[in-house]
C-alpha cells in the first residue's frame, strides 16, 4: 500500500514538473499551476489530484522549483540541474565554521556554551540560494530555526527592535541611536515593512 502511495505521489509530482518545464523562467502564481495540474491529472489518469499545494512545496524544498514569494514559484532549468550542488560540502562547512569562529553569528554562542551549530544558507535553497562560502553562515540551532520561519532580514529587524526596546528601557541613548539608524535603513529600502517598530 505504501509503495502505491509513493508511486502515486511521484506521478503527481511529475505532472507539476511537466507544467513548470513547459513554462521555464516564469514567476507563476499558485492557482495557475494547480488549475492545470488538477485538470490534466483528471483527464489523463481519471483520478483526483490530492494536495497539489504540498507537492509544489516539496519540489521547492528539494530545489527543483524556486519560491519567489508566497504562492509564486519559478522553474529555472540552469538551477534545477545544479540542485546536487546546493548542499555545502564538508570542506565548505569547516571553512564557514572556522571563519565565523565556531560561533552563531547572531548570538555569539558556540560549542563551548553547549549549543549545536549549523551551517546555514543566508539566501535559502528554496529561494535559489546556492552552496557558496559567501552564502553560508554559522547559526546555533535556535537561531537557525527562527531564521527558517522568519527569513534572514525579518530575523534581523526583530532583533534590532528588541535591542532598541531594551536600550530605551535602560535609557542607553547611544545604543538607541545605533538601533534606530539600522531600523531606519530597513524603512528607507522598504524591507520588511510588515514588521512595525515605534520610536
Instruction: Give the CA-CA distance, first to last residue.
Output: 59 Å
Text of the CATH class of the largest domain: Mainly Alpha
Instruction: Indicate the CATH topology of the largest domain.
Output: Arc Repressor Mutant, subunit A
Order of helices and strands: HEHHEEHHEEHHH
Uncertain parts? none
Tell me, rounded to a whole number, the average pLDDT: 86
- Percent range of helical residues: 40-55%
Summary, kept brief:
Keywords: Endonuclease, Hydrolase, Nuclease. The protein has 199 residues and is mainly alpha-helical.
Please tag this protein with its features.
199 residues, mainly alpha, Arc Repressor Mutant, subunit A, 3 domains, 3-stranded antiparallel beta sheet, two-stranded antiparallel ribbon, 8 helices, 5 strands, elongated, zinc ion binding, endonuclease
Question: What this model shows, in words?
Answer:
- The protein has 199 residues and is mainly alpha-helical.
- The chain folds into 3 domains: 2-81, Winged helix-like DNA-binding domain superfamily/Winged helix DNA-binding domain (Arc Repressor Mutant, subunit A); 84-150, no CATH class; 153-188.
- Helices cover 53% and strands 10% of the residues.
- The protein has 8 helices and 5 strands, in the order αβααββααββααα.
- It has helices at 2-22, 30-45, 52-62, 77-80, 90-99, 141-150, 152-169, 173-188; strands at residues 28-29, 66-69, 72-74, 117-121, 136-140.
- The strands form 2 sheets. The protein has a 3-stranded antiparallel β-sheet. A two-stranded antiparallel sheet has the order 4-5.
- β2 (66-69) and β3 (72-74) form a beta hairpin.
- α1 packs across α3 and α7 runs antiparallel to α8.
- The longest helix is centred in the N-terminal third of the chain and has 21 residues, at 2-22.
- The mean pLDDT is 86.
- Residues 91-145 form the HNH nuclease domain.
- This is HNH endonuclease.
Amino acid at each position: 500500500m505504501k509503495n502505491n502511495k509513493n508511486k502515486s505521489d511521484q506521478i503527481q509530482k511529475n505532472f507539476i514538473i511537466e507544467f513548470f518545464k513547459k513554462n521555464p523562467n516564469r514567476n507563476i502564481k499558485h492557482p495557475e499551476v494547480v488549475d492545470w495540474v488538477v485538470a490534466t491529472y483528471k483527464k489523463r489518469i481519471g483520478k483526483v489530484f490530492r494536495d497539489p499545494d504540498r507537492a509544489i512545496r516539496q519540489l521547492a524544498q528539494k530545489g527543483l522549483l524556486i519560491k519567489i514569494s508566497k504562492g509564486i514559484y519559478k522553474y529555472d532549468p540552469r538551477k534545477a540541474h545544479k540542485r546536487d550542488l546546493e548542499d555545502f560540502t564538508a570542506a565548505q562547512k569547516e571553512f564557514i565554521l572556522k571563519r565565523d569562529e565556531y560561533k552563531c553569528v547572531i548570538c555569539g554562542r558556540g560549542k563551548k556554551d553547549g549549543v549545536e551549530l549549523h551551517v546555514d544558507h543566508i539566501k535559502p535553497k528554496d529561494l535559489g540560494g546556492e552552496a557558496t562560502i559567501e552564502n553560508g553562515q554559522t547559526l546555533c540551532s535556535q537561531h537557525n530555526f527562527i531564521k527558517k520561519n522568519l527569513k534572514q532580514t525579518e530575523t534581523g529587524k526583530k532583533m534590532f527592535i528588541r535591542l532598541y526596546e531594551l536600550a530605551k528601557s535602560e535609557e542607553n541613548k547611544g545604543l538607541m541611536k545605533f538601533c534606530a539608524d539600522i531600523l531606519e535603513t530597513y524603512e528607507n529600502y522598504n524591507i520588511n515593512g510588515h514588521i512595525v517598530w515605534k520610536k
